[in-house]
Amino acid sequence: MFRFFLQIQLKGLNVIRIVFSLIFIFSMPLFAKTSYVAIGTGSTTGVYYPTGGAIAKMVNKKQKSYGIKANAESTAGSVFNVNAVLKGDLQFGIVQSDRQYQAYNGIAEWKESGPQKKLRSVFSIHPEVITLVAAVDSKITSLKSLKGKRVNIGNHGSGQRGNAIDILTAAGINWEKDFVAESLKASEAPRMVQDSRIDAFFYTVGHPSGAIREATNGKRKVRFIPITGLDKLIKKSPFYAKSVIPKGLYQNAANKTDTPSIGVKATFVSSSDVSEDVVYNITKEIFQNLNEFKKLHPAFSRLTKENMLEALSAPLHPGALKYYREVGLTKNIDPKLMN
Ligand code: GLU
Questions:
Q1: What is the pLDDT of residue 274?
Q2: Under CATH, what is the fold of the domain 32-126+266-338?
């Protein structure tokens, strides 16, 4: 009798064990490992920083289903981001389209290290304009009149530094000899103009941006300088296109009309080492909720699913491509990027 009782008890224990094992197995996704991803951006008063923040915010809201915890980090900018993504220090980076092209093809900053074959594109974001801001009292009215002045061409690691050098060289200005070149971060330049420590600065940025607002809202009046007459440069560079800084966007800028310039695009990149699932989920989150995303920054106002597949030159990350295939967006993608 006692033995019988014991057997039943043991059986009961086994049942409990089985039930617990089953609960554990079925609840595995709840305990699944969280993937921590770092997104490289730029100066805190640029547009990359809030853009990285917007992506992280949307993805983190669904942490339970995606298992992703994203964090936007302020960095030196595009060139730094490309290199940090390739090293695995960052999983994603926001990078100018010209920098993506140069890194993938092994030119400009990547001439010595060669083509960066692990670089993967995910999507493109807002347009950016090569913006030259000059103090009105410095009498700078054109690229040529930068000669003899003190000009910030941008910090090492930023996207704008290379753009400034391209523009100046194409305009026949030797940046190492014809003026005093500074290498300040974009977040420092507006105050330096206001303190009369520099006359002008270059910044490749989406509009409106905090840094340009700060530069235009100070006591010292500033204006945007047209970047024109560089058709040869545009023709030989697949990534430069004509663009404008619309008048009225910054109320206190001295310009009365649109300022013509040259533009690129901000793009979202990753590395072939980053998992397909992570890239798929982030892509899906932003594309499925594009209207919500667009509300997070005024520079996103013209984004469409189709134009977010333009201006890319590194192959698409397989996770992003999987999503674009699922929703039938591949007809908008350059076939070269889908191998
Ligand atoms: N285009 C800049 C760069 O690549 C950053 C602009 C921004 O932060 O919005 O460094």
A1: 98
A2: D-Maltodextrin-Binding Protein; domain 2 (3.40.190)
Residue closest by Cα to atom 3 of ligand 1: 159
Domain layout of the chain by residue ranges: 32-126+266-338, 128-264
* Pocket of ligand 1 contains residue 46 by CB under 6 Å: yes
Quote the pLDDT of residue 339: 74
Ligand 1 center to 186 CA (angstroms): 8
Atom of ligand 1 nearest to the CA of 264: 1
pTM: 0.91
- Give the right CATH number for 128-264 from 3.30.479.10, 3.40.190.10, 3.30.470.20, 1.10.1370.40: 3.40.190.10
Percent of the chain with pLDDT over 70: 91
**Which ligand 1 atom lies nearest to the CA of residue 209?**
9
Burial of 130 (0-12, 13-18, 19+ CB in 10 A): buried
79 lines ligand 1 (CB under 6 A): no
What residue owns the CA closest to ligand 1's atom 2? 159
CB of 74 shorter than 6 A to ligand 1: no
